[in-house]
Amino acid sequence: MEPRYFEDWKPGDVIETIGRTVGDTDITQFVTLCGLFEELFVSQQYVEKHSIYPKRFAPGALTFSFAEGLIVLTGCIHGVGLALLSVDGLTIKRPLFAGDTMKVRVEVLETRPTRRPDRGIVTFAHTVLNQDGESIMECTVQRMLRRRNPANE
How far is the C-alpha of 63 from the C-alpha of 88, rounded, in Å? Predict the structure, then answer.
C-alpha cells in the first residue's frame, strides 16, 4: 500500500493488515526485552497450575506493539506519520495465545486539520482479531499525519 496522507483518509475508510502468527519465542523475547518477568509470562508450570487460561499467552503490551507493527507494515503511514498522539480505551477482550494468528482492522473515525498547514489529526479505531475473527483488543488511536499539499491551504 502507498503512504496515505492526511487528505487521503475519510471517516468510514477501513484497512486490514496481513495476519501474523505469534509464537512462543516471540512472547519470550518480548517479555525479556521489556522486563515483564511475571511468572504468568515466564513459567509454564505456573501457567498450568495457577492461570485461568490453559496455555501460555502474550502480555497485552505485546498485542498492542505487534498490532502497531502490522499497521506500519502496510506502508500506509510510511513517511507521512508524524506522531502517535494518543491511545484511548485500550481494552483486552481475550488473550492472544502462542500459536494464534492476529491481524488488525483499522477504521477512520474522524479527521481534523490543525492550525499548521502541513499536518492533520486522524482518529482511528483499531480492532485486533484472532484467526477465528474474534476481537482480542480494541482501542482508539490518534495520529498526526503529514498533508500532501500544505501550500494549497
Answer: 15
**Residue found by looking up cell 480505551 in the block:** 89
Task: Count Cβ atoms below 10 Å from residue 152 Cβ, excluding itself.
Answer: 8
d(C-alpha 131, C-alpha 146), whole Å: 33
Residue numbers of the domain that contains 139: 8-152
Q: How far apart are the C-alpha atoms of 76 and 85, rounded to whole Å?
A: 17
Residue type at position 36: L
Q: What CATH number is attached to the domain comprising 72?
A: 3.10.129.10
What residue ranges in the chain does DSSP mark as E strands?
Answer: 14-16, 20-21, 81-92, 101-113, 119-129, 135-146
Q: What is the mean pLDDT of the chain?
A: 95
Burial of 73 (0-12, 13-18, 19+ CB in 10 A): middle
pTM of the model as a whole: 0.93
